[in-house]
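To whoever is on call:

I kicked off a structure prediction for a single chain this morning and the downstream step that reads the tokens threw a length-mismatch warning. I double-checked the sequence; it's 351 residues and nothing unusual in it as far as I can see. Pasting both halves so you can look.
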Amino acid sequence: MVYTRPQLSLREKASLAVAILRALFAGLLASLTGPFRGPTGSPKYVNHVKANMVRAFVDSTTTRQLQAIAPPLSEAYTAYASKHNFSPQSLTLPCGTRAFWLGDPSARKLIIWFHGGGYSLPPDPGHLPFAHNLANSASPDIAVLMLEYSLVPHATYPHQLREGVELLRYCITDMGRRAEDITIGGDSAGANLAMGVLGHLLHPHPKIPPLNLPGKLDSTILLAPWASFRSDWPSMRSNAKKDVVTTAMGKKWSSTFLDGLPYDGYNQPLSVPAAWWDGLDGMVRDILIVAGADEILVDCIVELAARLAGVHGRVETVVAEGEWHDMPTLAALGGGGVQEDAIRAFVRARL
């Protein structure tokens, strides 16, 4: 279900302009006060300024406004392919949802990637370069397939989970891919979706047909996983002035995503006992969890890593000092870093 970019009213356009001015003012104020920010601010001055601007802008806008100014994945992918001189290639699932190739579709290894954005936003401009670089820098034997899952409020939980499971099913049953050659991964909300797919493999969701794997998946990559919708984790306070996302964003987006439904293991992996994940080692061979030490979600991510390590003997966790939420995909804010290096090294090791 691809959304149509909203047409903003004059009032919405005016408030969007105000949000831009607020972001610019926040950046100016942060640049002046940055030298005196102390340990509660980002360790790097430029990061401190950028983070203040992003928080001010996103907290001042609505989902409609953000969807109006950001192109859907299908549009962004076509433009990206043209800019980088390769032929766009996609597949369409039986439900009508599309997924887009980065790298050679005939590559032996496949990474299914679910982008972040709170289930509310299309991919950041840095998502496609991140995925493309992941395919190209590791090996010509690896391709990335990025799902254009439905965004809220146009579709809510468990619709996105159904789409994620259907893509994995399609790759195995229709494309003939071996489970042991497939990695599923995602960033932020996309990592939440990846965990939901794993949960479905263990305990089929009552509204989604079961998927019985013919073997173990090769691996799972969880970049900045949105493991909990709670806002009382200590890092929510200690990193509030360091990160680019806020608790207010999380509350707004998670509420819209759930649309009144309760928490469960598919939509919030830390809402169920650790034993719910028993058997995960029979579904996937290796798990990589990556986070920034300066992100507000770091405490719940570390807790997720500990719980998964209790039921799976091959969980690797990397927490990068001085880095924020989902840093590798946020190109305008710098991208790269220790988190991206860890993911690339993990992918190269799969060959």
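Update from on-call: the warning came from a stale cache, not from the record. Cleared it. Sanity check on the structure: The two ends are 35 Å apart (CA to CA).
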